[in-house]
Amino acid sequence: MKGKFISFEGSDGAGKTSVLRAIRADLEKQLGAAAVMYTREPGGDHISEQIRQILMDSKNTAMDARTEALLFAAARRQHVVADLKPALAAGKVILCDRYVDSSIAYQGAARHLGEQEVWQINQFAIDGLMPELTIYLDIPTELGLKRIATHRTDEVNRLDKEQLDFYHAVRHSYLRLAEKEPARIKTIDASQSLDQVIADVKAAMHAKFTDLFANEF
């Protein structure tokens, strides 16, 4: 596989959407639009997107936690086969909004299914495909939720309705993952200004892949 696989993680309100939009635009200027693939999880091809609709439907509040974890893993498996592996084989730079770490944090920790148990479910789904670099945008939980309440304009989904303890568990899980895998997961302080966060993300990407943003460093 010749491409580069970079995932972006973060608690709600960390600013992933804004950061990814900027990073994608600048990479496309450098490499050309055809060389960069933006994608998201759950989502990707039409099958994964249909699973996403079930997961995010605000009416599905009765969904069992294990059902949720299995649906995320199923969407991920389809995403790997239909989108990620072909893009890597084509030499593209993949910018993926969430991947396995999200399931470990949200379902494993916050849903109390067990981080290791959720990791094992996803091992079957991804068949060894992990990002070479994961950008984790870290933000204090209360600040992240305040940002959502103030700025989010899209439809509130099922996962946006959780309690504060849920989001604390998500953040603490991400921090544990980052401490456990420092070579892959780079933590960025997302409470900074957007411009500074973007600059820090570019620096982390350049440190891993020296050909990315080479004209800026």
Q: Give the tally of β-strands.
A: 5
Strand content: 5-15%
CATH class: Alpha Beta
- Order of helices and strands, N to C? EHEHHEHHEHHEH
Low-confidence residue ranges: none
CATH superfamily caption: P-loop containing nucleotide triphosphate hydrolases
Number of H/I helices: 8
Name the strands of the widest sheet in spatial order.
2-3-1-4-5
Please state the structural category.
alpha/beta
Q: Tell me the overall shape.
A: globular
CATH topology: Rossmann fold
Radius of gyration: 16 Å
* Termini Cα gap: 26 Å
Helix content: 40-55%
The assigned CATH architecture is 3-Layer(aba) Sandwich
The structural domain count equals: 1
Give the overall average pLDDT.
94
Structure explained in plain terms:
This protein is of the alpha/beta class. The protein has one domain (4-216): P-loop containing nucleotide triphosphate hydrolases (Rossmann fold, 3-Layer(aba) Sandwich). The chain is 54% helix and 13% strand. The chain contains eight helices and five strands. It has helices at 16-31, 46-56, 65-89, 100-110, 115-126, 141-151, 164-180, 194-208; strands spanning 4-10, 36-40, 93-97, 133-138, 185-189. It has a five-stranded parallel β-sheet with strand order 2-3-1-4-5, with helices on both faces. α3 (65-89) runs antiparallel to α4 (100-110). The longest helix is centred in the middle third of the chain and has 25 residues, at 65-89. The model has no long low-confidence stretch (mean pLDDT 94).
